Amino acid sequence: MLNIAYIGFGKSTNRYHIPYVKERSEHFHISRIVAPHIDKRPSDRAKLEATGTVFSTDIQDIIADNTLDLVVVVTPAPTHFAVAKQLLAAGKNVLIDKPVVATVKEITELIDLAKQHNAFFMPFQNRRFDSDFITLQHVLAAGYIGRPIELELHMDHYRPNDAKQSGGVMETTWFDHGAHLVDQMVALFGKPQHVAYDLRVARDLSASLSDQFEVNLFYKDAFKATIQSSEITAVHYPKWILHGSKGSYIKYNIDQQEYDLKTGIMPGDTGFGIDAPQDYGKVTYYNQNNDRIEKIIPTINGDYGRVYDAVYETLVNHQDKLVSNEQLLTTISILEAGASAPSPHIVNFND
Question: pTM for the whole thing?
Answer without folding.
Answer: 0.95
